[in-house]
């Protein structure tokens, strides 16, 4: 923190940041020790253009109005806050599901892409790039580009292109070009590298729509703000249903951490609300095939942000593993690194097996087939016990349609 | 005096070469350095390989992956370079990404560089603000020059800021691109070279990215002090072997 004070900074556009929220980003994009913008000079003009304007643009009444209108009419917001009666009975506590799976395109990702496409238009950009792992963010980006008539290029690891064929087809139907990332392990990390390289090569007309609360400042904060509609709605809905805005716990899965950031956002500085983050343990935290960054990561720099990441002793970034492509990322957003280090958040990791079982269970108990990412958050109830009258809100971040093949193979359906 | 500063005072255009340490084979580092010096190269950037080199095109990415696969590490490179100053007298710069330096320990890294006789560091993803707030004092304590980059998109105000912070040369990225572009230079590029020269910066400039042959070397050094070749050199040794350094340098000047 002392270091931040020593850094000179431009405060003009930043005065409007909500500084009183201590778990939010500060004006230089730091969450405690984490965040910042560790970018090569080639990206400085693009990132600086965005940094100096994003808060101002987002606060313009015309921007707010268009954003809210699209979230309502196009995405289908507000999404329901659903009391999961049979699931609650089974685990002896009160569980609400925030139904982001009912968003257009099937996951929370579209909240962010709607916001960023409006941002790109305000900045005068005509070409959009994105990275994607499972393809959910790629589809959400291709969707808003179709909506606005903008050129869209999505980078996707060659391995993921094979694993997620239906989403590749969806992106193509939506008019996007899907470019395979051929370097490294050919998954999400490498797709992100390729998107960043594209941005270096196209610094003037292109906006990069990052899909999670990762990357250089201002991305983590900007994406969190766009996703914060999730907790904004939750507060109102809980007040109607329970007579109070604050639950006892908010629970979400964390890949990069955008659905989690959205659900936590308005609760970050409410100490009576417990924050639970669920990471993918893969085949087990100590098996060498895991994506549990808080358990396995150390402080370092990935994709322009100082955060916790999985790496060798020598600082080379290592390959994570999870059955869920959306959680298969070797870092976490700086907000979550800070929640972990400060102790504000409780971090739990869940194996492939426990997640798959929980996904099947929710399907049978509530008639909702969740995305495998989300299933990780559902799985904690087997071991993490809650009191009978605790109110627990889980972010049901996406639906399981995209994962049907994985469910079929796993359960021999 | 720091060897980079000394070299910048010489009355000639400087040719600098980049290579990835640990490539093609893990133990080629010293041999490549020796050949570079014997071929009359003025300065060398020794690339410390990184798993995720964001600013690099396919050639340097692939050589980095291969070098890591060969077992290159920060400590391994330093141990190869121990004693190098008995034979190598041209300026040496370590170029890499910030995460490996951070994990090694920034101070320990700088101290080792000084012991070896490294003159400067290029870390593209260590931005000016972070450098000045956290690391400048350490770099200076160990006599290391930090090299800043500019691009055609860098604003004049930012260039002035980087120039003021710079103690050696400014690394002028020739166009908006990652390393390894080979399309030659356009009129816009020449305008950029002229524009920067006309700014009368206190730091001399050395051009990098997209320089691959005599023609592009000449174009880059018409207005600037020197030029750096990376990908084209790596392609050459990939094709002709690690002992073919001289035959590449001959084609440049
Ligand atoms: C349904 C769903 N949930 C969660 C995630 C993980 O991303 P984040 O951690 O940014 O929410 C993804 C990513 O693809 C997803 O599709």
Describe this structure in words.
The complex is a heterodimer of chains A (413) and B (253). Chain A is of the alpha/beta class and 413 residues long. Chain A has helices at residues 2-6, 44-59, 61-75, 85-91, 109-122, 136-148, 158-163, 165-173, 188-201, 219-227, 229-242, 258-264, 293-296, 334-342, 352-366, 372-378, 404-411; strands at 30-31, 34-35, 81-83, 94-99, 127-132, 151-157, 177-181, 206-208, 249-253, 274-282, 298-302, 305-309, 345-351, 391-396. In chain A, strands 3-4-14-9-10-13 form a 6-stranded mixed beta sheet, sandwiched between helices. A 4-stranded parallel beta sheet of chain A has the order 7-6-5-8, with helices on both faces. A two-stranded antiparallel sheet of chain A has the order 1-2. With 253 residues, chain B is an alpha/beta fold. A 9-stranded parallel beta sheet of chain B has the order 5-4-3-2-1-9-8-7-6. In chain B, strand 1, helix 2 (29-38) and strand 2 form a beta-alpha-beta unit. Chain B has helices spanning 3-9, 29-38, 58-69, 74-81, 98-104, 106-116, 128-141, 156-165, 187-197, 214-220, 231-240, 245-252, and strands spanning 14-20, 43-47, 92-95, 120-122, 145-146, 148-150, 169-173, 204-208, 226-229. Chain B contains 12 helices and 9 strands. Classes of the chains: A alpha/beta (413), B alpha/beta (253). Chains A and B meet through helix 9 and strand 11 of A and helix 3, helix 5, helix 7 and strand 6 of B. The complex binds pyridoxal-5'-phosphate (PLP).
Topology:
The complex is a heterodimer of chains A (413) and B (253).
Chain A: H1 2-6, E1 30-31, E2 34-35, H2 44-59, H3 61-75, E3 81-83, H4 85-91, E4 94-99, H5 109-122, E5 127-132, H6 136-148, E6 151-157, H7 158-163, H8 165-173, E7 177-181, H9 188-201, E8 206-208, H10 219-227, H11 229-242, E9 249-253, H12 258-264, E10 274-282, H13 293-296, E11 298-302, E12 305-309, H14 334-342, E13 345-351, H15 352-366, H16 372-378, E14 391-396, H17 404-411
Parallel strand pairs in A: 4-14, 5-6, 5-8, 6-7, 9-10, 9-14, 10-13
Antiparallel strand pairs in A: 1-2, 3-4, 11-12
Helix pairs in contact in A: 3-5, 5-6, 5-10, 6-8, 10-12, 11-12, 15-16
Chain B: H1 3-9, E1 14-20, H2 29-38, E2 43-47, H3 58-69, H4 74-81, E3 92-95, H5 98-104, H6 106-116, E4 120-122, H7 128-141, E5 145-146, E6 148-150, H8 156-165, E7 169-173, H9 187-197, E8 204-208, H10 214-220, E9 226-229, H11 231-240, H12 245-252
Parallel strand pairs in B: 1-2, 1-9, 2-3, 3-4, 4-5, 6-7, 7-8, 8-9
The complex binds pyridoxal-5'-phosphate.
């Amino acid at each position: 923190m002392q270091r931040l004070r020593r850094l000179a900074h431009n405060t003009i556009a930043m005065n409007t940041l909500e500084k009183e929220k201590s778990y939010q980003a500060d004006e230089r994009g730091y969450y405690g020790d984490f965040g910042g913008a560790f970018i090569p000079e080639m990206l400085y003009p693009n990132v600086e253009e965005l940094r100096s304007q994003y808060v101002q643009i987002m606060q313009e009444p015309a921007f707010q109005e268009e954003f809210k209108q699209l979230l309502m009419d196009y995405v289908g917001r507000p999404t329901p806050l659903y009391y999961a009666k049979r699931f609650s009975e089974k685990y002896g506590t009160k569980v609400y599901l925030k139904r982001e799976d009912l968003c257009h395109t099937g996951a929370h990702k579209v909240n962010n892409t709607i916001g960023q496409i409006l941002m790109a238009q305000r900045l005068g950009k005509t070409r959009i790039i994105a990275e994607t792992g499972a393809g959910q963010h790629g589809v959400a980006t291709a969707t808003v580009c179709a909506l606005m008539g903008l050129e869209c290029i999505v980078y996707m690891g060659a391995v993921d292109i094979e694993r997620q064929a239906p989403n590749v087809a969806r992106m193509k139907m939506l008019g996007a070009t899907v470019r395979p990332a051929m370097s490294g392990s050919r998954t999400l990390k490498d797709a992100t590298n390729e998107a960043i390289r594209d941005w270096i090569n196209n610094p003037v007309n292109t906006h990069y729509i990052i899909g999670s609360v990762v990357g250089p400042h201002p991305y983590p904060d900007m994406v969190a703000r766009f996703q914060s509609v999730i907790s904004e709605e939750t507060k109102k809905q809980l007040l109607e249903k329970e007579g109070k805005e604050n639950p006892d716990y908010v629970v979400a899965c964390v890949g990069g951490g955008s659905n989690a950031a959205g659900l936590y956002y308005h609760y970050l500085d409410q100490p009576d609300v417990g924050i639970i983050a669920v990471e993918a343990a893969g085949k087990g935290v100590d098996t060498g095939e895991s994506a549990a960054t808080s358990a396995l990561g150390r402080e370092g720099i990935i994709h322009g942000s100082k955060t916790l990441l999985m790496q060798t002793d020598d600082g080379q970034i290592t390959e994570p593993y999870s059955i869920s492509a959306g959680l298969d990322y070797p870092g976490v957003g700086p907000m979550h690194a800070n929640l972990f280090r400060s102790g504000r958040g409780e971090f739990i990791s869940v194996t492939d097996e426990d997640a798959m079982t929980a996904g099947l269970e929710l399907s049978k108990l509530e008639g909702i087939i969740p995305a495998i990412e989300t299933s990780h958050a559902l799985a904690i109830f087997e071991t993490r016990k809650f009191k009978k009258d605790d109110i627990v809100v889980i972010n049901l971040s996406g639906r399981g349609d995209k994962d049907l093949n994985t469910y079929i193979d796993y359960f021999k359906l | 005096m720091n060897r980079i500063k000394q070299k910048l005072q010489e009355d000639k255009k400087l040719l600098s070469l980049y290579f990835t340490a640990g490539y093609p084979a893990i133990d080629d580092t010293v041999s490549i350095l020796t050949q570079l010096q014997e071929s009359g190269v003025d300065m060398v950037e020794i690339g410390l390989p990184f798993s995720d080199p964001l600013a690099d095109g396919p050639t340097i990415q692939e050589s980095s992956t291969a070098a890591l696969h060969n077992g290159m590490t920060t400590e391994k490179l330093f141990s190869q370079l121990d004693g190098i100053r008995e034979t190598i007298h041209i300026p040496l710069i370590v170029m890499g990404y910030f995460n490996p330096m951070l994990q090694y320990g920034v101070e320990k890294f700088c101290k080792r560089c000084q012991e070896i006789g490294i003159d400067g560091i290029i870390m593209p993803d260590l931005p000016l603000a972070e450098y000045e707030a956290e690391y400048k004092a350490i770099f200076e304590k160990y006599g290391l020059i930090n090299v800043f980059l500019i691009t055609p998109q860098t604003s004049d105000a930012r260039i002035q800021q980087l120039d003021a912070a710079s103690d050696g040369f400014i690394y002028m990225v020739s166009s908006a691109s990652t390393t390894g572009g080979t399309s030659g230079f356009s009129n816009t590029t020449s305008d950029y070279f002229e524009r920067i020269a006309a700014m009368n910066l206190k730091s001399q400039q050395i051009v990098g990215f997209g320089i691959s042959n005599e023609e592009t070397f000449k174009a880059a050094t018409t207005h600037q002090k020197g030029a750096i070749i990376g990908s084209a050199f790596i392609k050459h040794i990939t094709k002709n072997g690690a002992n073919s350094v001289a035959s590449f340098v001959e084609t440049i000047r």
